[in-house]
Amino acid sequence: MYTSTTLFAFIGALAGIGSVSGHSAFFHPSMWGFNVTDKDYPYDNRPVAPLRDYTFQQWWFHNHLDHPPNPGDFFELPAGKPATAEIACNKGATSFFASSEGGDIREPNNPNNVCPNSESIAYHTHGIDDLEGCALAIAYKDDVNQVQPEDFTIFSVNQTCVWTRFTDFSVPAAMPPCPAGGCICSFFWIHSPKAGGEENYMNGFRCNVTGSTSTVPLAKPQVARRCGSDPENGKLQDVPGNCTYGAKQPFYWLQAERNNVFEGEHSPPVYNDRYNFLDGAQTDIFEGFYDSIPEPAPNAPLPVAKQVNSPSTETSPTASPSGSSSPQPTFLPSKACKPKKFPSSSAGLQRRSFEEESTGVLPRSWTAGRHKATVIFLHGLGQVNATWQMAFSKALTPYFPNVQWIFPQASEKRVSMNQGMLRPSWFDIWQLPPHPEEYDERGITESVSAIEDLILSQIHLGVDPRRIFLMGFSQGAALALMVSLTTLNELGGVISLSGWLPNAYRRHITASPSIPILWCHGTDDKEIPLPYGRNAMQFIDSLPGADASKTELKIYRGLQHTINDRELEDIAAFLHLQLQS
Ligand SMILES: *[C@@H]1O[C@H](CO)[C@@H](O)[C@H](O)[C@H]1NC(C)=O
Ligand SMILES: *[C@@H]1O[C@H](CO)[C@@H](O)[C@H](O)[C@H]1NC(C)=O
Ligand SMILES: *[C@@H]1O[C@H](CO)[C@@H](O)[C@H](O)[C@H]1NC(C)=O
Ligand SMILES: *[C@@H]1O[C@H](CO)[C@@H](O)[C@H](O)[C@H]1NC(C)=O
Ligand SMILES: *[C@@H]1O[C@H](CO)[C@@H](O)[C@H](O)[C@H]1NC(C)=O
Q: What Gene Ontology cellular-component terms does the record carry (predicted)?
């Protein structure tokens, strides 16, 4: 049978429980088999019963396809927000106790108890440190009979599942809407091998994505591969190249048919970092998230996320593994798309023009910078300074040999937009696009003064402040602007790449510092849309003492939240011009 008699004896000995306890299931009226009891089948096929050694028909949807949910019952998945599921070892321990066999067994003093009157071993864990995570998967089909195992994509993981009855699953913000009849979802769980017989859990249910603002479909899900450290099996190192990146299928394991993983009983596949199922929303499951995904292998290069600072890049695994082959941003100039020309869509806005017709090759004379100068570049949220240093080392810095380039690195801060995860960040961000009024006063004040200190140290080294430039991308651009619009030093210029200027900071800006500003922005930027750039430039140009001839907004048609070769040339041209004056 699917579970060992010794385990049941153990559970019984621990807690003296009856048939109400053991295992765990997702409970919601939207599920198939919501009302199945131990009387409905010749074998225990309640939703909580584990699945092992079964035929496809027996394990798929728990063999509950003949027990559909009532029409109109959906489990709602609010895009960008958590969906709260109820997980319990018995329906009587959930809000849906009314239709359970034994009535309400919830524990009044601890509503989060997954299995009242039982030890945690009854739901297969020895304690909070022995949890291996569970997951929700989605298929973008509304007819359950059309859904195949290969159609399910894991979109959310909770690595501390099944510790609390109310378990939050973060829904990726970029989830597209479901078909007219909704979507088909499923709960999956495989517990720790230390806590009893190894088994699979699957509860299918009807779901629907709400509040969606995206139309990008999910990518085709692949089988998840083992790639994280596993000290208990003698693997002390992560092997990031071996990971499956992007959309991943659930594990189908230990059945008689249609398995997709074949790990041994005592090293089960798990919904956590060991299989690159990061805790929370799975943000990289969408088509086009990665430029390309190399074939996984222990020594394979890591994939490159397409948008340098998309919200999903924050949790992208490309940024985390250290010492492995470095991820490269997508705008490296050697690309095949080099000849692509962007029409000068910004013509109407230009107040000053230089080097409009780009040649793709920078004049040699530009290397002849006469004096010492410094460019301080501030990276975007979740980014690593080395990425930008590498990118510029090919396309930009060689043309300015007398300029010192400084790439400060933001420290790791809790980022609200990323569920409080620690990310390299100059200040807190709640959402992208940022709400114009959101403002992390403390973080911004600290980062502004850190950059001011950096400027001062350059001045102390003898650099003329008028030859010090601030440049930044996205969040780094916002910081570069805030510093340069309020600093008492007369700086050489500021370059904002896909940036914005928080409204709350604008109150500190009383007059135009008359600093040359180059603002570069793509028309297709979804993280920091172009109107943020226009609005900030209008504000700057309306300040007392503003000199519109010193500010320039460059717009790049078709460009998303990243930079391209044309932009690099414009940056070079701007720096060159300012350094000559
Ligand atoms: C489950 O049982 C309850 C109580 O009999 C009933 O109201 C409900 O419609 C049933 N749900 C399903 C999906 O069969
Ligand atoms: C997992 O669920 C718990 C309990 O609801 C919740 O506190 C936690 O934030 C969830 N974790 C994630 C990553 O969503
Ligand atoms: C799913 O949610 C969307 C957005 O709220 C709604 O328009 C649609 O009618 C829902 N679909 C179903 C089948 O309930
Ligand atoms: C790579 O992944 C495969 C498939 O999950 C696994 O069998 C293998 O052990 C992994 N190799 C390493 C070095 O982690
Ligand atoms: C990146 O930042 C680190 C400090 O966190 C620093 O040691 C390193 O020199 C910086 N890299 C570059 C290229 O400036």
A: cytoplasm; extracellular region
